[in-house]
Amino acid sequence: MSNDSAPSRRGFLTGALATGGAVAAARASAQAPDPAITELQPWMQYLGDGVDARPYGSPSRFESHVIRRNVEWLTADPVSSVNFTPLHELDGIITPNGLCFERHHAGIAEVDPSAHRLMINGLVDKPLVFTMQDLMRFPRENRVYFLECAANSGMEWAGAQLNGCQYTHGMIHNVQYTGIPLRLLLEEAGVKTNGKWIMPEGADASAMTRSIPIEKAMDDCLVAFKMNGEALRPEQGYPVRLVVPGWEGNMWIKWLRRIEVGDQPWHHREETSKYTDLLDNGIARRFTWEMDAKSVITSPSPQAPILHSRGPTVLTGVAWSGRGTIPRVDVTLDGGKNWHEARISGPSFDKSMHRFYFEFDWDGTPLLLQSRAHDSTGYVQPTKNALRDVRGENSIYHNNGIQTWLVDERGEAENVEIS
């Protein structure tokens, strides 16, 4: 592994300043005046909106392109479909609520919280029904977690398909959830000794269900009602959803209405016909819940090309693991010949996104960009070929292989694979 350090930006700036005065003066005399400097701009000449004009804030109109997007051919109908978080437009680790990807099986349920109930039944001492006001009386916690669809990057199993990290990796978001530890609600109902599994059920028209072992339910699951400090959005399960940290997103049941306790898994539709990993021999792996360590470079990338000429360049991306934290991310500029340790900046939470950066001087030659995450268990993100050697190309789910972007001399990037 190469330990070459990135060029010093301070050195670059110091050198520029040493000759900058004379150069700047020469350029100023040779170039026409810049109207952005010499002329008053419209926003400098009139009063803007008052404090009551926008009672719920929204992004600048100059950021109107930063939106979730879908892939029209991916599903037969947008009611049972997915759209994608614009990862290439974001920084830090928190996904704004309005940009968190959506995955629905029967469209968005518009639930009246005053008429919503959460029931716990099955192998419990006393079946219970909670109103939203009942739930507000339980102790609550704040936790930052990523939520990743099991099919994130699934289109890439057979080769490079979609040109943009929004589409290859955008079935993920990372927010702060406020909720009640599920353990407290189950303890209130009293789980019987033979209660080994729970089956959460959603209140939407698809009645989404999944089987979850009682150990996970009693560990770190939350019944959440807020994200990033405000109420859940309807598309994210308002008024209440299940949070299953580190595990595939379809288990995070939205519009949560019922939790049944049982003595064995239910093997319902979404854990048999879907959300299983089909191997080359036609046998599907059973219950692959955890999301393995993964990363992606968000810039430069196909939707975020290099817009400047050669010189100081900032590479950035995100990494995450369903088994812990990310203590290290490596990046390569030459397709894996030389690896450099990236700089992780920001908080390092368990089962959360991590933001990494790598600063370098681009000389204008083509780049083959990759990132490789290491998680706190010692697991290292594999290549796509390493995954295929084990699982073949029949699968849709749990593709955490290393992603490659080719950046050409113009700074434009595309999705490629290298062997």
UniProtKB/TrEMBL annotation:
Q: Which residues form the Oxidoreductase molybdopterin-binding domain?
A: 105-266
Its keywords, alphabetically, are: Metal-binding, Molybdenum, Oxidoreductase
- The protein in question is named SoxC protein
GO terms (BP aspect): sulfur compound metabolic process
> Domain Moybdenum cofactor oxidoreductase dimerisation spans what residues?
286-403
Which metal ions or organic cofactors does this protein require, according to UniProt?
Answer: Mo-molybdopterin
From which domain of life does this come?
Bacteria
Question: Which NCBIfam families does this UniProt record tie to the protein?
Answer: sulfite_DH_soxC
Task: Write down the InterPro entries for this protein, in alphabetical order.
Answer: Ig_E-set, MoCF_OxRdtse_dimer, Mopterin_OxRdtase_euk, OxRdtase_Mopterin-bd_dom, OxRdtase_Mopterin-bd_sf, Sulfite_DH_SoxC, TAT_signal
MF terms from GO for this chain are: heme binding; molybdenum ion binding; molybdopterin cofactor binding; sulfite dehydrogenase activity; sulfite oxidase activity
- EC number from the UniProt entry: 1.8.2.1
User: Which principal EC class is assigned to this enzyme?
Assistant: oxidoreductase
Pfam short name (any one):
Mo-co_dimer
